[in-house]
Design a protein that fits this description.
Length: about 675
């Protein structure tokens, strides 16, 4: 996952500031380290500096007389200001995720909220700044000789201004601002309700039949009863393995009703206000507004994309269902030839056990963390023809954190990457990548990127090696892929650098790289048994590859259903019957799953606020990722020649061109769904 901190807001709203000598330049690894404040005073000082310098720089842009406006003193000056602001503030946000000290996290949190508000008011809803920019765009820009990337920057920024409502008369603009604030508040409450929902069940030991002793012993107890809740480490294993149908059913009901009914009312308000907002901004619906800035362009084309894909998935899913049906556990009953929702994971798990005989733990024995990380970095070095070397440093926010320097073969530094890979109390619990300083090309040379990769892998101890699950290996490769996108993606305008791309494109480069971890030659290279040092046997590798296709039809149906649901909820119309739409969408797409009326999943579908109508983006980027991957694979997954072409034509461009053009340029044709369908056996 790509974690957007403040910088995202500055892309959603126009990008943006600063003058020559005040530029933050990274000349050594010490400069990279120095980006991260080490005391609470320093956090506050940097926040103040970010605000006062941005204010000053933007005021200077506004003060320029119209006839003297140029790309450099207006658009580029805004870009420079934005880079400075982000380089000072994103590290503060990152500290909130990783710093072990409570005071540091709290200060970072409170300062980030303030900076967030500041950036919206000062960079986003700054009317004089918009007027200055528009004035230049309309009057002077057409006469100036500009590069294609500069024109693209101007056009995209003007579109962002329009989507933010800056072009509207004052009264409408105020309504837009009011609705946006209300929506921000409602979205925050919606997410908080999901996070706060801690419903539990207290059940006896027999109701946990099928679960391992380790699992049961780790549960909290109330007298003789065991407490189970809806967190993933408890929910998933129970749905997969508990042999008591009543337990799975109760658990499923609990899970599907998280944040219900409280979030039903909130979601209805969000849908209604987003619809009003989109109309004020001149769009047919919120989905139209939300997708206008994306690769896909419109809800109509997103729907068409999903429909085609789901149709293809249906055939495969029908086969998957027949296969499961022919081999059902004796305790399972189908209703109207459909699987009850609380039986699905259980049935699939039994089938896998019987026919695949793969054990995650056995696979993990081939991925001891040290060797695996070394091998993964080596793949990146070979394919992209770069050098990744660890720089011994101390005094970072935690002793586990490592620093990697990325250089080109000629020695030019591309970037510095902090790796914070092990879990500890109060650290961000998922995996993500954060760029804390964008790379930039200045007079032909690179001012390096600085980024952090965060993960939570098992930590080795003196007695026990840490063994990664295959899934962890894929996760690391994925997150490091975002970092590579950032370090190879330096551009002249920092707002276009690396991962500053459209939301439905940003996961594409990382999703391509995931495919390396399903290739037999690469798996042989990466794996090494922690005792014998032997690579993974062919048979095990084949099973990993085969399992990927195991329920791909059902997977696409499910993802397609979620994406369609998000589009339906944000279609034209203020009032929506949430339950009716969920039921109809589910029944029209999920062919062999029974819809249960106790399903109020939308109340905990957190992506409805953050991603809005854009949930289709998961499948969208996967489809094009696989198209590019097949092209790359023809030349070899460790072939630096194709690696360099891919870097130059796709990730190296960052967001300086429409991604549709980047894909076309690399492929030499229009991208299509064929590779995706082949890869998933559809
Ligand atoms: Zn990602």
């Amino acid at each position: 996952m790509k974690k957007y901190t403040l910088s995202m807001l500055l892309i959603l709203l126009p990008a943006c500031l600063l003058t020559g000598e005040k530029k933050i330049m990274i000349k050594s690894h010490q400069d990279a380290i120095a980006l991260l404040p080490t005391t609470t005073q320093q956090i506050k000082k940097r926040a103040q500096q970010a605000m006062s310098e941005s204010k000053k720089a933007l005021d200077e842009i506004i003060a320029i007389p119209s006839e003297k406006r140029t790309f450099d003193n207006t658009a580029r000056a805004l870009d420079t200001a934005s880079l400075k602001f982000n380089s000072l503030t994103t590290p503060i946000q990152a500290l909130e995720y990783v710093h072990p000290n409570k005071e540091m996290r709290e200060t970072a949190h409170e300062q980030s909220i303030m900076l967030n508000k500041f950036s919206i008011d000062t960079f986003g809803y700054n009317l004089p700044l918009y007027e200055a920019f528009k004035n230049y765009y309309k009057n002077n820009a057409p006469r100036e000789k500009l590069a294609k990337t500069e024109r693209y920057f101007l056009d995209e920024s003007m579109k962002e201004y329009k989507r933010a409502g800056l072009n509207l008369p004052e009264e409408t603009r105020n309504k837009v601002a009011q609705l946006s604030k209300e929506l921000a508040q409602l979205s925050q409450e919606f997410s908080a309700n999901i996070a706060k929902d801690t419903r539990t069940l207290a059940i006896s030991k027999d109701q946990l039949a099928g679960m391992s002793d380790d699992f049961i012993n780790a549960l909290n107890k109330e007298g003789e009863r065991y407490i189970i809740n809806t967190t993933y480490p408890i929910y998933i294993p129970i749905m997969k393995n508990c042999t008591v149908e009543a337990t799975r059913k109760r658990m499923w009901e609990l899970f599907q009703n998280r944040a219900y009914p409280i979030n039903k009312d909130l979601l209805e308000q969000i849908i209604s206000k987003r619809d009003q907002l989109s109309k004020l901004l001149g769009f047919d619906s919120y989905a139209h507004l939300d997708l206008d800035s994306q690769m896909v362009g419109s809800p109509e084309s997103a729907e068409k994309f999903l429909k085609t894909l789901i149709q293809k998935a249906d055939r495969k899913e029908a086969k998957e269902f027949q296969r499961l049906k022919a081999d059902l556990p004796t305790t399972i009953k189908l209703i109207d030839d459909k699987i009850q929702p609380w039986d699905k994971a259980f049935i699939e798990e039994r089938y896998k056990e019987k026919h695949f005989n793969v054990d995650d733990e056995k696979i993990a024995q081939y991925f001891p963390i040290q060797n695996t990380l070394t091998q993964l970095l080596d793949i990146y070095q070979q394919f992209f023809n770069i050098t990744l070397s660890e720089i011994p440093v101390s005094g970072l926010w935690h002793e586990d954190v490592k620093l990697i320097k990325a250089t080109k073969k000629d020695g030019a530094v591309l970037g510095y990457l902090f790796l914070d890979l092990y879990p500890r109390d109060n650290k961000y619990t998922h995996a993500c990548e954060i760029d804390i300083k964008k790379g930039q090309i200045i007079n032909g040379s690179i001012d390096p990127t600085v980024a952090i990769v965060i993960a939570n892998f098992p930590k080795p101890t003196a007695k026990k090696p840490a063994l990664l699950k295959h899934n962890d290996v894929v996760t690391f490769f994925h997150e490091f892929g975002h970092a590579i996108h950032d370090i190879l993606g330096a551009t002249e305008l920092s707002s276009q650098a690396g991962t500053s791309v459209k939301r439905d494109f940003v996961e594409l480069p990382s999703q391509i790289l995931e495919e390396w971890m399903y290739d037999s030659e690469i798996l042989k290279k990466v794996s090494s048994h922690y005792k014998t040092g032997k690579p993974m046997p062919e048979e095990m590798i084949n099973k990993i590859i085969e399992l990927k296709k195991f329920n791909s039809g059902g997977f696409v149906q499910r993802q397609g259903m979620l994406a369609t649901l998000a589009l339906q909820y944000f279609k034209n119309g203020e009032q929506k019957d949430l339950d009716e739409i969920l039921k109809n969408t589910y029944n029209s797409i999920i062919k062999h799953g029974l819809f249960d009326s106790d399903n109020h999943f939308y109340a905990s579908f957190g992506h409805l606020t953050g991603y809005g109508a854009k949930y289709y983006g998961y499948l969208w980027s996967k489809v094009f990722a696989l198209d590019l991957f097949e092209e790359i694979k023809k030349h070899g997954l460790l072939n630096p020649e194709i690696g360099e072409v891919y870097a130059a034509k796709v990730i190296g461009k960052g967001g300086s061109d429409d991604p549709n053009n980047l894909l076309r340029d690399f492929l030499g044709r229009e991208p299509n769904q064929k590779a995706f369908l082949r890869n998933l056996g559809l």
